[in-house]
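Researcher: Please predict.
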Amino acid sequence: MQFACFVVTDRMENAVDLEGKGQARLLGDCVLELGPLMPSLNDIYGVGSRQQMAFARRRDGKEVVVGRFTCIIKIVVSTFDVKI
């Protein structure tokens, strides 16, 4: 699963209303491999898998962390009982 963080910039002189047409620039991205997490993701009685991730940007051959976040991922199956 891939996560990406963008920053939307706009000049104040161009902002006519709250729906300005800003320009999105990639701040950083990261990838979460789901394969090793599948047992905890499929556990219907569990709480999922809590992961601490970091957005990184590659600059001058080095990877620089530009942000961090925590997410909880769980596969939720919903079933609908249709009676006619």
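Model: The mean pLDDT is 82.
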